């Protein structure tokens, strides 16, 4: 991992920030929320000179320092395997911040990439041709992982390839992945990312329900199937309010499925179900949005209960999400 900032400096400023942070009101501690992810929140802290020009992604949900250390080991493995596969990522440093009396959290630090290079911008503003190229590019990056997975089925890796997770290069070179905080690694014994980190955000009763149903692991499985990965990229257009651009992207995705992905899909043993249709994208997205909305609601419930008992709720949650 190449450090984007001196780790000792990062630690001291982040400890100070973490002391001041109320996760329900990050702005009160001087943070600007760039985006609320499903797992982490992307922040900037422009008032702290050492952190200017950087994005901070705050991951919480670690039971203890050992759990945070395991996560960091996994992240390091994930980033180095992505590099080996030549899937470019934005430089990412990780810092564990442990305020006494509280559970530790891990901050991922990255350089703030220019807004006009981000996938969201491409989605809304690029020409049809450029959008189609962008979709093909992210699928081609994902293909590198699928090819490796077919060769090593017991130690697979994938990426969340939604357009919003990439920064596109002005010279037309392949985009760089910015969303690396959830390492998608699936081995013989299941997903390497500890689902307890996610489940820590919901009330204990619901936790055991999710555990029993294997919700998190089933959710992550989709990223290992080329067709479902493409479906997820397209479905996300709807969340971003760009459903009208689905047909252009669908053509690019189906061309990818019919050619480079077809062979690997067979090797991976995924059923080949022909081209994706707009109706399938809509249905897939509906289910996905319902799962994520439910997950957000149960997290809000936990936050409300903890507030009532004056206990700290350690996750930064979005307000209403338009899905
Ligand atoms: N390095 C960066 N430079 C500029 N913007 C960024 C950077 N990292 C993240 N962002 C912005 O924040 C958003 C969320 O970041 P990211 O996708 O890494 O987090 P996430 O919590 O995993 O989100 P989700 O769970 O929704 O995929 C990005 O889509 C992008 O708009
Ligand atoms: Mg993301």
Q: What's this, in brief?
A:
With 323 residues, the chain is of the alpha+beta class. Helix content is 48%, strand content 13%. The protein is globular, with a radius of gyration of 19 Å.
Secondary structure elements and pairings:
Layout: H1 7-20, E1 32-36, E2 41-44, E3 54-59, H2 65-84, E4 93-97, E5 105-111, H3 119-125, H4 128-151, E6 155-158, E7 166-167, E8 176-177, E9 184-187, E10 190-191, H5 195-199, H6 204-213, H7 215-221, H8 226-239, H9 246-258, H10 260-268, H11 278-308
Antiparallel strand pairs: 1-2, 2-3, 3-5, 4-5, 6-9, 7-8, 9-10
How does this structure look, described?
The protein has 323 residues and is an alpha+beta fold. The chain folds into 2 domains: 7-111, Phosphorylase Kinase, domain 1; 115-308, no CATH class. The protein is 48% helix and 13% strand. It has helices spanning 7-20, 65-84, 119-125, 128-151, 195-199, 204-213, 215-221, 226-239, 246-258, 260-268, 278-308; strands at residues 32-36, 41-44, 54-59, 93-97, 105-111, 155-158, 166-167, 176-177, 184-187, 190-191. The strands form 3 sheets. Strands 1-2-3-5-4 form a 5-stranded antiparallel beta sheet, with helices on both faces. The chain has a 3-stranded antiparallel beta sheet with strand order 6-9-10. β9 (184-187) and β10 (190-191) form a beta hairpin. α4 (128-151) runs parallel beside α9, α8 (226-239) packs antiparallel against α9 (246-258) and α8 packs across α11. The longest helix has 31 residues, at 278-308. The model has no long low-confidence stretch (mean pLDDT 93). Adenosine-5'-triphosphate is lined by residues 34-35, 37-40, 42, 55, 57, 90, 110, 112-113, 118, 120, 160, 164-165, 178-179, 181.
